[in-house]
Amino acid sequence: MDSKHIAALLNYAATVDSRVRRTMANDQQAAATIQTWAMALADVPATAEEVAWNAAHAVRRYYEQHDGDRSAQFHAIEPHHLLAAWATHRGELMDRHTDPLPAADPDDTTAYRAEIVGTRTAVATGQTPPSNCRAAIGPAGKEQLAGVGREPRPYMPAHIAELLGQFGLGARRQQLPELSVACPHEKCRARAGNRCKSPSGRELRSHTHDKRQRCYAERIAQQQDAAA
Predict the structure, then answer these.
(1) Cα–Cα dist 173/220, whole Å
(2) Which residues neighbour 26 within 8 Å (Cβ) at sequence distance 6 or greater?
(3) For the chain, where are the E strands, in sequence order?
(4) Does residue 108 form part of some domain?
(5) Residue 144 lies in a domain
(6) Quick check: is 109 in a domain?
(7) Residue 25 sits in which domain range?
């Protein structure tokens, strides 16, 4: 805020606080107060519609004594009250901000870093709203993301598993096809692709629970019936 912003802000505060009004009644004292406030609040914007900030609203909230704060009963508003209000608002903005992918070449680390810092500074000073990656995802993208993880996926590509099998690696896992289904055993409940566990939490390396084997067999039978 500059001197003009501060003068308008103090004039507004004077309408609700006689202490501020008495300070602004003397021209010399008013000029000194405006200069002091302008120096203290140089990095605080007067208004920033993009991020829903208005310094006058912060002044009003101070005198409305939100959240049980009774400071206004004993002290007229001072620059540090607005600094605290803006710091809280700025923190909320940065919490909602996700750095967008810079347009700069990633190999040019100086330009890449400068673009990220510039974007964060713009958000922190109220020049631009926070960038939210979730807001950039359309309905189709959200539906696609929601489907990720619903179906079990192989932990390893088939051609890699085949190559390892030629050297005797992973052969035991291949001998346990029932790992493709979740274990229904009450004390296990291992997810598809994960090995069964004993009641003590130890992973079973050489076998699986009987219920899991039966579940796998039933699924294979259903698939065969459907194919027929």
Answers:
(1) 18
(2) none
(3) 47-48, 53-54
(4) no
(5) no
(6) no
(7) 3-96
User: Cβ distance 31 to 25 under 8 Å?
Assistant: no
Question: Which range, 13-22, 160-169, 170-179, is most confident?
Answer: 13-22
The total number of structural domains in the chain stands at 2
Residue finishing a domain among 74, 96, 118:
96
**Residue 146: per-residue pLDDT:** 61
Same domain, 89 and 165: no
How high does pLDDT run on average in the chain? 81
Could you please report the per-residue DSSP string of 87-130?
HHHHHHHHHH--PPPPSS-TT-HHHHHHHHHHHHHHHHTTSSPP
In a domain, 146, yes or no: no
Q: How far is CA 51 from CA 83, 123, 131, in A?
A: 16, 8, 11
pLDDT at 166: 53
pLDDT at 167: 47
- Classify 136 as helix, strand or coil: coil
